[in-house]
Structures are given as structure tokens and as C-alpha cells.
Amino acid sequence: MSDRSLRGMRLGAQSLESEAGVEPAARQRVEYRTEDGEQVFVTFSVEADVPATWTSKTGKEAFLVSGEKPAETEGKPVRTHWDMLRERRSLEELEETYKIQLNKLRASRGEDVDA
Questions:
Q1: pLDDT in tens, 94-115
Q2: pTM of the complete model
Q3: For the segment 46-65, what is each residue's pLDDT rounded down to a tens digit?
Q4: How crowded is residue 32: how many other Cβ atoms within 10 Å of its Cβ?
Q5: Can you tell me which residues the record assigns to a coiled coil (predicted)?
Q6: Contact, 31 vs 40, CB < 8 A?
């Protein structure tokens, strides 16, 4: 056993597969441009659906150069927490609840509680 040595490989550094005969998937390079002229190039598969907008690295919205600007859709307005609360309670009920909770807080701190 001393006349033979066992050889190993480095962990994760090398693959036993060769790249012979492997062809990468067909790709397309798509250009987007922001309102201020910043160019963004993104590579997609030829089979992929190309979105009309893309967010650049700077956080700006970029539009497809060869396409049209997407139409603004008039959707439902965003309902905030306050809007949903106002659907369930009147201002008088909210004022009363506020006073009760404020009195509880003051009592827990040992402060004078107004009735």
C-alpha cells in the first residue's frame, strides 16, 4: 500500500465534465434607455419575453428602445391603513378610542389620568 498513493481533487475548484460539444443557449442583447439618456443593456434568452421597462442600477426606470412606452393604467387607488380604518370607524369613535388608550398609557406610567 505504501507503493501507491491516493490522489484527490481540490474541493469545488474543478469539474470532471468537459465543455466539448456544449453550445450555450441563443441570446439577444436588449437596450433600454432612461429619461435622462442613460443606456442599459440586458441579455435575455431568445425565447424569453422581453419586458417593456427595466430598472437600471441607479434605480431609474428605463424603457425599451425598440418598443413603445407602456400606457399608464388607471387602476384602483392604493388604500392606506387610515382609509381602511375610516371605513370601519367614525371620527368620534376613533377619538374616544384614542382617549381610552392614552389614559391606559398614562396610568401604566403612574401619571395623572384625566377622565
A1: 999 999 999 999 999 988 876 5
A2: 0.45
A3: 998 889 899 999 899 999 98
A4: 24
A5: 84-111
A6: yes
Q: What one-character-per-residue DSSP string does 91-115 give?
A: HHHHHHHHHHHHHHHHHHHT-----
Query: Domain limits of the chain?
Result: 25-62, 77-109
Helix (H, G, I), strand (E, B) or coil at 87: helix
Cell of 59: 434605480
For residue 101, give the C-alpha cell: 388608550
C-alpha cell at 104: 391606559
CATH superfamily of 25-62: RNA polymerase-binding protein A (2.20.28.270)
- Give the CB-side neighbour count of residue 98, counting CA atoms within 13 A: 7
